[in-house]
Design goal:
Blueprint lengths: L16 H13 L1 E6 L4 H15 L5 H8 E4 L2 E6 L2 E2 L2 E3 L7 E3 L3 E8 L6 E11 L8 E10 L8 H12 L2 H9 L3 H39 L8 H10 L3 H6 L7 H30 L6 H18 L11 H6 L8 H22 L10 H24 L1
Parallel strand pairs: 1-8, 7-9
Antiparallel strand pairs: 2-3, 4-7, 5-6, 8-9
Helix pairs in contact: 1-6, 9-10
Length: 388
């Protein structure tokens, strides 16, 4: 006998509106049988299928048995072809699990039916019907058309009812139901309560994820304006003097300091000269090499003193050199000053709100896209110069 096991997820009544609609629609015409006295699988399923046959003329009992049970050369085995049950893990080693043997959903598809049909039976006492059904109390049968929408198949409908019966509290309430109407109303109210619980759980999960993401980005503790700036200040103030004095202590520190100065001098000077020439040409002399070197030197000194550490290197970048142009007839220095003031405003805004913490989310792709932009921009500028 070949058997295939597959794990399927439970229905989310909070986000899947179809689940609640199916419960409301199918329960109104479902066959509900309470406290069956039969004790064998043949008698129990014959009773349920007979009641469905009486209520629904779209199929016969023989047709349902032929697809509900496993067959071989026309002989039926007392084994259900397709079933759904809940499981629980019994250990972490080997992935072992155990069945919830108090209920079972049997599903099948028929070509002769046009609509879905559901039957639910509650046995009068727990009954042993074989493997994985040794303590059975509830039996659900779902019959669906062979050709149905993806949300109305036999498996999807079975998932809807299986999600309800997988809840121990709901099963206990169904055991206590005295009448068919009370049984039906219990299932309807349980579906609505489950939708509310799942929505609340999703909201709590979202809130927890948001709190964790906020703590990961901005750190623990209460947030307030300039929190990151003040934390940086108090964290670095005790090392401020050593940042300068450590470069003068030791036998070989002067040699290392001098070599670093020479290296950084040319590393900063050569790009300043190159971009200064480009700015001189684009701005008609408003910004030349001398001004670029002077501005870069003053900015570097200011940042070295007030930036928290002396190793802050300022360079004129390619995008700035490309976009700085004297065009459209505006006063260049006035427009350039406005751009600087707006940059200063955004920098203060970012520093006061800890927006710089978002840089933790930046990956190497941002650097690669920036490099690609520089390459394309200079290629376009060179092609434009050749065309002219």
């Amino acid at each position: 006998m070949y058997a295939k096991h597959e794990k399927i997820p439970m229905k989310d009544f909070g986000s899947e509106i179809r689940a609640t609609m199916d419960i409301d629609h199918l329960l109104n015409k479902a066959v509900l049988l309470l406290d069956l006295q039969e004790t064998s699988m043949e008698e129990i399923f014959a009773k349920i299928i007979h009641e469905m046959d009486i209520q629904e003329p779209e199929f016969t009992s023989e047709q349902v048995r032929s697809v509900l049970f496993t067959q071989d050369s026309g002989n039926q085995f007392h084994i259900l072809s397709r079933t759904v049950q809940s499981i629980c893990t019994t250990g972490t080693v080997g992935g072992t699990y155990d069945y919830d043997q108090s209920w079972i959903c049997a599903l099948c598809m028929l070509n002769t039916v046009q609509h879905r049909h559901v039957a639910i039976a509650r046995l009068s006492h727990p009954t042993n019907l074989g493997r994985t059904m040794q303590d059975l109390r509830f039996i659900i049968i779902v019959i669906a058309p062979s050709r149905a929408k993806g949300t109305k198949t036999a498996l999807e409908t079975t998932r809807t009812f299986a999600t309800l019966f997988a809840d121990m509290d709901i099963r206990q309430r169904l055991v206590m139901a005295q009448t068919v109407d009370q049984f039906r109303s219990t299932l309807l109210s349980a579906a609505k309560e489950l939708a509310i619980d799942q929505n609340q759980w999703r909201e709590r999960k979202t809130s927890i994820h948001f709190s964790q993401a906020k703590e990961q980005l901005f750190g623990p503790g209460k947030w307030y304006l300039f929190r990151g700036l003040s934390n940086d200040f108090f964290r670095r103030i005790k090392y401020y003097s050593s940042d300068y004095l450590d470069g003068l202590r030791g036998s070989k520190t002067i040699q290392k300091l001098f070599s670093s100065i020479v290296f950084l001098y040319f590393a900063c000077l050569l790009p300043a000269i190159a971009f200064g020439v480009l700015n001189d040409d684009n701005t008609n002399g408003s910004i030349n090499v001398r001004k670029v070197i002077t501005a870069q030197a003053l900015g570097g000194i200011f940042f070295a003193i007030f930036g928290g550490q002396p190793m802050i290197i300022l360079l004129t970048t390619v995008p700035l050199a490309i976009y700085i142009k004297g065009e459209l007839g505006y006063d260049f220095f006035a427009m350039y000053a406005c751009v600087g003031l707006w940059c200063q405003f955004f920098l203060i805004l970012y520093a006061s709100t800890d927006m710089c913490s978002l840089m933790k989310l930046a990956t190497r792709s941002a650097e690669e896209m920036f490099s690609l932009f520089i390459a394309i921009a200079f290629t376009v500028e060179s092609m434009r110069a050749l065309h002219i």
